[in-house]
Request: fold
Amino acid sequence: MPTNHRLLLATRPTGIPGPENFAADAKPARPPAAGEALLETVYLSVDPAMRSWMSESAAYRQRISPGEVMLGGGIARVLESRAEDFVPGDLVQARLGWQTHPTIPGRYLQKLDLTLGTVEDWIGPLGLSAVTAYFGLRDIGGLRPNDRVLVSAAAGGVGQIAVQIARIEGCRVVGIAGGAEKCAFVASELGADAAIDYKAEKNLSSAIARACPDGIDLYFDNVGGSTLDAALEHLRLNARVVLCGRISQTHAAEPYGVRNLGRLSAARGRMQGFLVFNYHERYDEARNWLAARLRDGSLRQRLHVLDGLEQAPVALGMLFRGENTGKLVIRLTSETGSG
Ligand SMILES: NC(=O)c1ccc[n+]([C@@H]2O[C@H](COP(=O)([O-])OP(=O)(O)OC[C@H]3O[C@@H](n4cnc5c(N)ncnc54)[C@H](OP(=O)(O)O)[C@@H]3O)[C@@H](O)[C@H]2O)c1
Reply:
């Protein structure tokens, strides 16, 4: 049996999580029982929501307790199978946890359809971040051609796909991101019409006014707080605000009190939150759409790859310090065999 290297939650973080909140252990992997498969993790996705799973008061999904394997989704290769429909070599996605060799019931595994894209596509532009952008913009935001769209955290996993979907659908798109390098990526690689470096702007609302001179029909909000407030000031008639995430508030000492809700009334606009998990039965629809745009070259995605399970605790903190460009993932092995 291979050794299963695991990262357990050691202590609940009070601020940005880091290596001090995790403990490593190593044990022989558990042989699969009937209906289970032994896996080798290939990629783990790193997502802001993981921070909330580590809290005593987890807002949604599962709460994790100290001593348990850290939760997280990813892609793995089947090493040994006693589960119907899975054979060694199959590539699957599942909630693997932060471990190299999980043993998981077959009913929790989804085989990757490699006709849609590569393993890297499945952790990237066919993964949950991309699917989140798809449903957020289309179902919640009611995206229409010619909409003037603003996206925050535009250089991140969800944001980079949101920018491109809006561009592909014939919208004028402006991205907000932290730093000149990220803004160059948003404008030149993702094809946004303009990018705002919020870290370089004294007054974000004025910067939005300059970049969006005709206002905003759809604001895709990954950030919350004062960024949301600034965007609200520029809503056009019948604008839609999609509350995808509020990463700026994760470690805020005091929750930010949004001041410009009156603008939503004036615009006869609407603001709505959502969780991608509620679209589970329609993931294929999103993936087929995204895969077609990958094939025709109109959609691309930057993966920010860190190698080795031991990088995972550092990686999680990077999201909250803005140190990632693109979708942040941990690579544990190569696609074709143990690395
Ligand atoms: N609703 C859903 O179902 C769902 C699903 C997935 C993700 N989400 C949400 O979508 C958002 C993006 O997630 P992701 O996985 O794609 O992460 P990401 O955008 O790849 O990484 C997070 C980014 O947020 C920005 N950021 C961090 N702290 C910030 C702060 N205090 N103020 C402003 N910006 C800050 C940083 O970019 P800059 O350097 O540009 O600041 C950072 O790179 C998150 O809010 C997440 O919770 C929601």
About this structure: The CA atoms of residues 229 and 259 lie 6 Å apart.
